[in-house]
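User: I'm new to structure prediction. If I give you an amino acid sequence, what do you actually give back? Let's try with this one:
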Amino acid sequence: MTEPQTAEIPKTESEAESTRELPPVVADQLDDEVAPFRPGVAGWLARGAVWALLAWVVFAIPGNVLSPFHLGVSDVGHASKAAIFAIIGLSLNVLIGYAGTISLGHQAFVGVGGFVSAYVVVDMGLEFWLAVPIAAAVGGLQAALLGAVSLRLTGLYFALVTLAYGVFAEETLFGITAFTGGEGGKNVPRPIGFGDDYSFYYLCLAFLAVVLWADWRLVRTKGGRALQALRENPRVASSYGIDVKAYTLMAFVVSGIFAGIGGALLAQQSTFLVPETFDFELALLFVLMTVVGGLRNRVGVVIGSVIFALLEEGTLVHLLHIDGFLDSTIGLPAEFFGLVVGPFLLLLTLTLYPGGIGQQIAPISHWLRGRKFDLHAGKVTEVEVADVRA
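Assistant: Good question. You get back a string of structure tokens that encode the predicted 3D arrangement of the chain. For your 390 residues, that looks like this:
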């Protein structure tokens, strides 16, 4: 299938303005082209030390390698889940951040990917390495079918269609016993060579790296630039020859593929999959972690997804050793701490930091990439979804 043809969008006077007023992805591309600042030797050494520290946190601590902390199996399992949630957050960011389309039924795409992977491994007896691409293909196919019948709608009505699909999957698809195992669920074995939680964590990191690379390449293609244009204003993008429906469908399919991969990994991570896991509450969690992380900011979305994944079962509270304090002072169990922090972080994002976590860490991330430290880097004035300001 050939990519829809687009016309080149002429430059406007706004391109001469500061990149701080542009979307983060576009601003980063312009910074890469201009790049007037070059750090010295000491600057690169300082940046290298920070990169090494980050690599140690991500790779060494969960594997108990050169680490003063010892993480148990359950903690490493939560770290694997955080990496999987980051993949799901990136999939939703393609829809909300790039295409400007809100999905309220994303748990259905993740759930279908998980159960397809479980069916391929358990019922068909095939390997995990075949189950993942099959789950990704099914995720893209269901997104294409849903998008094909609902792209005539926009905004709130499109969101309601995705919500209806999520409810349909929860009440119907996930109730097929031959497919999901029914209320009894389905046991899913880990792939050969990755049976323990430590090795499986690194497998999830590898898939996260692949999805990050694919997302990075998507933004730099002609289709990715078209997505950014139609998100800013679909009518103006259409006037320049961009096929709005075709590119929105493309974003929907890419999002479905990423969600299918996340669902397949989630099935392997839990080793026991039940339909009740994929409910509307999970869909809201996905939207929260994406918006709080920062729309169109990969690093912010990954960090936001990790935080909400660790908050979901009180893991972050236990790691910070504040569970006893919360229980004794306000009587709040660690498992419910995320229900309080999540809405608070959303309100903070909508009012003070519209760019989410991505906006807050932008000065540091720009500095780590060799640019001059700027407290105003990545500044966002409002949460933007399509041509409607949220």
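You can read the tokens as a compact description of the fold. Here is one thing that stands out. The longest strand covers residues 186-187.
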